[in-house]
UniProtKB/TrEMBL annotation:
It is a multi-pass membrane protein. It holds the Pfam family Sulfate_transp. Gene3D superfamilies: STAS domain. Its main location: membrane. Belongs to the SLC26A/SulP transporter (TC 2.A.53) family. This is Sulfate transporter. It catalyses: bromide(in) + chloride(out) = bromide(out) + chloride(in); iodide(in) + chloride(out) = iodide(out) + chloride(in); oxalate(in) + sulfate(out) = oxalate(out) + sulfate(in); nitrate(in) + chloride(out) = nitrate(out) + chloride(in). The lineage of its organism: Eukaryota, Metazoa, Chordata, Craniata, Vertebrata. The chain crosses the membrane at residues 54-78, 107-123, 174-196, 208-230, 250-274, 335-355, 376-398, 410-428, 472-501.
């Protein structure tokens, strides 16, 4: 039987688009109010804030995150190749802006190790091109803590090649100029993606790609910090293969290791790892995580200051960190042009990590977020702070987990964290002058534990899905051995190629009948299936299109043990020989048979079926080549007196077949060619004479 299809009313897309345009362009007070409340979600939830119920959890989580942010901000400045003050600016402004514009109640937005690394790689490259020395291990200037001090000992007149920059701008000034231009462009890209609703781009970053990218970047981060751990002075490597080159330089200069830094690093790593492990083991008993990083920094700073480790043992220290805020400055347009391409992967990675974390915690705590608004939020978390000497930000998993574990309810906690950072910015920053860089490197390396533990998951990942494991390995290797941006691109392309290959060479099978039922399954996968006499049932587990047409035909001919084209050619050749013998008056055939026996020879022994049923349940769509392929096999098998029946076609496939003329002009034969189940097609084939 044929089910009657519903008649769909054709929609005039032009009128619909015009109606939407008129609606979006109209302006009413209510619409303006809704727009503002959508653009600033804080206006919706803040008036409904349950102070007695939420305030304690928000204040506690805000204080804990603020305490964690300070040492992390100072430490991640090493990754970004910038002074610690700029990391503190970034942490402050990001929390305030996301409080106003974010839709997630729990994520912690601020500095993130992977984003800092990507910023640092661009900064290092541009510093090198501008003629600066990348060696940042020179003795720090004592300074007076004012904001106007600059690294005048490393000033280059590069305004001859780069227009628009003051010739007296030193290395630090140029570095933050590059970082702010890069951050501004990344924010612009994110806002544009939000305007044009391009959030679907994140779908092409699979979990395997993201995990591989994070692990590969973590190896790069680890490698970049080793020189600080052991106190050697080697040039900061740039370009492809940075990881390998850095390790070669480390082993070449290992004899120059600073014993003071080595001992300090060993003690700090033992303390941090032990505290983290104990915290993970007894986290259900602790009301809030121990501020281990802050304790280590305070103790290490005191020891370094009173032990005069910089003066006596030449241990590298952070140097002067000024207080207050530098006057805002518009990012340089000429620098934006130089880093426009670098900002694109930065924007995508920042957005993807933020949205994925927001969705994960929204699902966990039963509320919804708006992905498009998240793109606007993280975009403006980059655009606005770039005027205040800040660099790119993103949501961070570790700090978000801490927020939720300490009772966070809303983004009020982000404001509390920003106030803690502000306190450091205004009053406490100069106290970290004597803090050793090796201590900061230890904090960074210990924070990578989660990403590096992904190596332990490889066997389990391989057991679940071998292709996803291969994607992870390729992305991780490319990110670590080539560069982070290239690694991300390689991961995306490779994962898409894996999908293409899997659709080009999908599973194919001949089906057998499950005994005493109307169901059919793969006879190579299941036992005790019975074959249907005179009927072959073929399953193709992918869409049928131009890229897998040949594989479809080869699999069909191989499994049915019959190529209709070769069989037709063989018969024509045989008939031609018979005609030649008859013309010569020989009543014996070419095989020595009589004419009456010729008919038996025309039917080959290998054809043991009279009907072919194609199970289309896994064919989601057909393109023009796919329709023509089905028409081709219909014609070829018909020449051999074998009928082709289609079963389990979805409406999209049926429509494609109708438009392609598979059922003829008036669809008169459709009822004898199309069936809604395999069993119906088999019964019809059995009834055929």
């Amino acid at each position: 039987f044929l089910m009657e299809r519903k008649t769909h009313v054709k929609v005039n897309r032009k009128e619909v688009m015009l109606a939407k345009l008129r609606k979006s362009c109209s302006c009413t007070p209510q619409k303006l109010k809704n727009f503002l409340m959508d653009f600033f979600p804080v206006l919706r939830w803040l008036p409904k804030y349950r102070c007695k119920e939420y305030i304690w959890g928000d204040v506690m989580s805000g204080l804990v995150i603020g305490i964690i942010l300070v040492p992390q901000a100072i430490a991640y400045s090493l990754l970004a190749g910038l002074k610690p003050i700029y990391s503190l600016y970034t942490s402050f402004f990001a929390n305030i802006i996301y409080f106003l514009m974010g839709t997630s109640r729990h994520v912690s937005v601020g500095i993130f190790s992977l984003i800092s690394l990507m910023v640092g790689q661009v900064v290092d490259r541009e510093l090198l091109l501008a003629g600066f020395d990348l060696n940042d291990d020179a003795p720090p200037a004592s300074g007076d803590g004012s904001l106007q001090n600059d690294n005048l000992s490393n000033t280059t007149a590069f305004n001859l090649t780069i227009v628009g920059i003051n010739a007296e701008c030193g290395k630090e000034c140029y570095a933050i100029g590059i970082a702010t231009a890069l951050t501004f462009m990344a924010g612009v890209y994110q806002v544009l993606m939000g305007i044009f609703r391009l959030g679907f781009i994140s779908m092409y970053l699979s979990e395997s790609v993201l995990d591989g990218f994070a692990t590969g970047a973590s190896l790069t981060i680890l490698t970049a910090q080793v020189k600080y751990l052991i106190g050697i002075k080697i040039p900061r490597s740039q370009g492809h293969g940075m990881l390998v080159i850095t390790w070669i330089n480390i082993f070449r200069n290992i004899s120059q290791a600073n014993l003071c830094d080595v001992i300090t690093s060993a003690i700090c790593i033992v303390v941090l790892v032990t505290a983290k492990e104990l915290g993970d083991r007894y986290k259900h008993k602790l009301k809030f995580p121990l501020p281990t990083e802050l304790i280590v920094i305070v103790v290490a700073t005191l020891v370094s200051h009173y032990g005069k480790l910089n003066e006596v043992y030449a241990s590298s220290v952070s140097g002067a960190i000024p207080t207050g805020f530098i006057p805002p400055k518009v990012p340089e347009f000429n620098l934006m042009l130089r880093v426009a391409l670098d900002a694109l992967p930065l924007a995508i990675v920042s957005f993807v990590f933020t949205v994925s974390l927001s969705e994960m915690f929204a699902k966990k705590y039963s509320y919804t977020i708006r992905a498009n608004q998240e793109m606007f939020a993280v975009g403006f978390c980059n655009i606005i702070p770039s005027f205040f000497h800040s660099f790119a930000t993103s949501a961070a998993l570790a700090k978000t987990l801490v927020k939720t574990s300490t009772g966070c309810q809303t983004q009020i906690s982000g404001v509390i964290s920003a106030m803690v950072v502000l306190l450091v910015l205004l009053f406490l920053a100069p106290l970290f002058y004597s803090l050793q860089k090796c201590v900061l490197a230890c904090i960074i390396i210990v924070s990578l534990r989660g990403a590096l533990r992904k190596f332990q998951d490889v066997p389990a990942r391989y057991h679940v899905n071998k292709v996803d494991t291969l994607v992870w390995v390729v992305t991780m290797s490319a990110s670590a051995l080539v560069s982070t941006e290239i690694g991300l691109l390689v991961g995306i392309v490779f994962s898409m190629l894996c999908i293409i290959v899997r659709t080009q060479r999908p599973r194919t099978a001949l089906l057998g009948q499950i005994q005493d039922t109307s169901f059919y399954e793969d006879d190579l996968e299941y036992e005790n299936l019975s074959t249907v006499p005179k009927v072959k049932i073929f399953r193709f587990e992918a869409p049928l299109h131009y890229a897998n047409r040949n594989y479809f035909l080869k699999s069909l001919y191989r499994l049915t043990n019959l190529d209709p084209n070769l069989e037709a050619a063989r018969r024509k050749k045989y008939e031609k020989k018979e005609k030649q013998h008859l013309k010569k008056g020989n009543h014996r055939t070419a095989n020595g048979l009589g004419i009456g026996e010729t008919t038996l020879q025309l039917v080959p022994k290998q054809i043991d079926f009279q009907a072919l049923v194609v199970d289309c349940s896994s064919i989601s769509f057909l393109d023009t080549t796919g329709v023509n392929t089905l028409k081709e096999i219909l014609k070829d098998y018909k020449n051999l007196n074998i009928s082709v029946l289609l079963a389990c076609c979805n409406p999209s496939v049926i429509d494609s077949l109708k438009r392609g003329g598979y059922f003829g002009k008036d669809f008169g034969c459709m009822q004898e060619m199309l069936f809604y189940s395999i069993h119906n097609a088999v019964l019809f084939a059995k009834d055929q004479k």
